[in-house]
Amino acid sequence: MIFARAFRPLLVGVLLSPLGLASAAPPPAKVQPVTDDYYGTQVTDPYRWMESGQDPDWMPWLKAQASHTQAVFAAMPGRAALLADVARRSGEMTSLGRAELAGGRVFHDVRAAGEQDVKLMVREADGRTRVLLDPTTLTGPDGDQVIDRWTASPTGRHVLVAVSKRGTELSTLRVVDVETGALLPLAIPRAWMMGWTRDGDGFSYLGMQGEPGTPSYYVGNEPRLHRLGADGEDVLLARRGEGGITARAEQFLPVAFDARSDTALAYVRDGRSEMAIYRADADEAMTGRAHWTPVAGFDDLVVETALDGDTLYLLSRSGASNGRVLRTSASAPDLKTAQALPLPATSVIESILAIDGGLLVRTLEGPASGLWRVDAGGRAVRVALPFEGQVSAEHGASDAPQALVTMTGWFTPATAYRLDLRDGGLQDLALVPPPPFDTAGYDARLGTAVARDGTRVPYTLVMKTGTQPTADTPVLLEAYGAYGYAALPRFSARMLAFLDRGGVYALANVRGGGEFGRDWHYAGKAGTKANTWRDAIDVAHHLAAAQVGSARTTTLIGTSAGGVMVGNAINERPDLFAGAIANVGFMNPVRYVSEQNYADIEEWGGPITDAASFQTMYALDPYQHIRPGTRYPPVLVVSGLNDPRAATFHSAKYAARLAAAQGGEAPVLLRLDFGAGHGMGSSRSQLDDVWTDIYAFALSQGGRAEFAMPRTR
Question: How many beta carbons lie within 10 A of that of residue 452, not counting itself?
Fold first, then answer.
């Protein structure tokens, strides 16, 4: 039976402006209940109309919520100074993104001081550095163009660049001639997962066939090969159901080549860390008529590969939660006879990179990364890293005995080092200058909370040096816990402004992440997902007992997949938090079928094909478990209209339903950026604004008077 009831507007009452003038609260969302029958369970959704994005009330309602939320933050006395502080730090520093080594050149992307967007750069062998691509020079019918991703050819003669309208990640592939800096006339729209061929005269990519922004977008994606300068249609490299390949239409099917090997690999990927793998001779694969031989299936739990000549390395978690590296023939692979390399048994193996005569292996060692050089005989030697932090990327070159290693830490911005593979020495390449402000006056303190089932959950507290937290300290507690992603130290210039105002940032390494291997991931995945938000709850309890914030001052934040964590945490314990932030969150998993990113659903127990899979996903859906009449804490819901990863309807539906259910007077604020997406491709000013609001909200709920929200009545 379809049931309708009266719903409250977001932020009950009226806003009193700093001048004392009252502005009307935005209108409530209209209610049009739809009831679905999931294998005998009826579920009613009052806001299904928001999913299409085409309803005539959609944009007016979003704009009203956005304007109202903007007015609330504008009325905070301390926000202007906080924004100035955030913008000063982010604007003064030049930040490094990725770096690659090819043809004796170092390619890298930077956001230069004072600039809004990332540019692609190259440093020549003689030290000269120049701009290869400034996206502001590109003209597009859709508005600002930004760099989504890029990769240099093995020879260093060309760079393949994916650009898109800001925030959409709807990429068009372009190629830059490195010698001249000119863009080739080539433009391939709706493309993803690209990589160069062995000789660098062509590249593979996944071409999308469906309509952007709809569930059809990824369906039937095609791996294709483009040869530079060639006329005619690009070669279709592999087909589902043909040539030995087995894959569903919604799974991704990229094909990759490697400069070090005569073998091509085809991968079948979805939302899982694991993948199925096929191989073929590279020359045959480039004809589009290859027969693909199975290498590994999903049950073999392979999460990464590396090629070096006729050697194929596979990182597998089968029989080893922390992972093990297997070595077999690339031309005739056999997992049954593959050799396991004797790497350090206590470390979680996170990634592998083939280097000259061996491997570079990144490990997880508590709250930081480790790095090892492994020779052809399997002997592992630790690389002495310059500081304790996160190794965020490694990149090798087939023509040089060296690799690039990029690191970051709580108080160290991303820095690229040249690793000498002969002696293990690291040299700072100084691709960007150090920040022109102090990053030394802050501390990171490690701790462990004991969850309700006895599991030890680590966390890190980041604060200004000399801070002695109390029950009155504003605490911003973050947790993620999904996809086996390990939350490690990372630098944020913007966060320093929050710490300078007495705030403490806490990062909880909850189950569902990859900090302790596959077992830790699967202990917070699908049917065990409740461990993720309950670990966050238990860390909050532990901190409060230690007088690090309290239920009066602690704000919980979850970003992207962390939306499931934060939504369920406040559903279960609304009394434990002073505030909550759902940042571009995945809030309504049961309705994954309505969004572009629906193929990425294995993590949550889907797809829904029977009563059991429905119950798994329904149990972890925060939107469906909002309880009417509950006194929820103040909640800030952040979204971007162009978001391709967690569709805007997740945030909008969640905010509307939460406000309607609110049993107290606490506000639910929906913050929309109409020119942003999931955060990728946002300009510096957009990021300054959104993080200022996030930190202002946490300081407000932490009791800081200068961030008090306007009174309502």
Answer: 11
Q: What is the pTM of this model?
A: 0.95
Decide if 661 is inside a domain. Answer: yes
Q: Is 654 in the same domain as 509?
A: yes
Same domain, 360 and 447: no
Three-class secondary structure of residue 107 per DSSP: strand
Neighbour-count burial of 373, counting CB atoms closer than 10 A to its CB (0-12 exposed, 13-18 middle, 19+ buried) = buried
SS3 525: coil
Burial class (CB in 10 A: 0-12, 13-18, 19+), 629: exposed
Contact criterion met (CB below 8 Å) for 585 and 569: no
Domain membership flag for residue 244? no
pLDDT score, position 398:
65
Q: Who contacts 469 (Cβ-Cβ below 8 Å, separation ≥6)?
A: 461, 463, 475, 504, 547, 548, 549
Q: How far is CA 583 from CA 67, 399, 607, in A?
A: 18, 43, 24
pLDDT tens for residues 591-605?
999 999 877 789 999
The mean pLDDT of 657-685, rounded to a whole number, is 96
In three-state secondary structure terms, 126 is: coil
CATH number at residue 567: 3.40.50.1820
Any residues with CB less than 8 A from the CB of 80 and at least 6 apart, and which?
none
Cβ-in-10-Å burial (0-12, 13-18, 19+) of 711 comes to exposed
Task: Provide the pairing of β-strand 172-177 with 158-165.
Answer: antiparallel
Contact between residue 507 and residue 515 where contact means Cβ atoms under 8 Å apart: no
**Exposed e or buried b per residue across 182-195, where buried means at least 16 C-beta atoms within 10 angstroms of its C-beta:** ebeeeebebbbbbe
Q: Work out the burial of residue 30: count CB atoms within 10 Å of its CB; fewer than 13 is exposed, 13-18 middle, 19 or more buried.
A: middle
Q: What is the reported pLDDT for 277?
A: 98
Q: Beta strands 235-236 and 119-123: pairing type?
A: unpaired
Q: Same structural domain for residues 376 and 477?
A: no
Average pLDDT over residues 644-650: 96
Residue 406 to residue 392: CA distance in whole angstroms: 6
pLDDT greater than 90 at residue 34: yes
- Structural domain count of the chain: 2
The DSSP-derived string for 327-367 is EEESSS--TTTPEEP---TTSEEEEEEEETTEEEEEEEETT
Q: Which residues form the domain of 553? A: 68-74+443-707
| Residue at 188 is within a domain | no
Q: For 46-177, where are the E strands, in sequence order?
A: 95-102, 105-111, 119-123, 129-133, 145-152, 158-165, 172-177
- Mean of pLDDT values over 392-399: 83
| Paired strand residues for 349 | 363
Using CA atoms, how far residue 328 sits from 96, 305, 308, 309, 333, in Å, is 36, 11, 11, 11, 6
Give the bridge partners for 355, in sequence order. 358
CB 557 within 8 A of CB 566: yes
**543 and 678 assigned to the same domain:** yes
Total H helices, total E strands in the chain? 10, 40
Q: Are residues 528 and 389 in the same domain?
A: no
Sign of CA dihedral 8, 13, 17, 22: positive
Q: Are 224 and 205 in contact (CB under 8 A)?
A: yes
Beta bridge partners of 670: 637
Phi, psi of 146 (to 5 degrees): -130, 160
Query: For residue 418, which phi and psi values (nearest 5 degrees)?
Result: -90, 125
Whether 369 is covered by a domain: the verdict is: yes
Whether residues 422 and 448 fall in one domain: no
The DSSP code for 187 is -
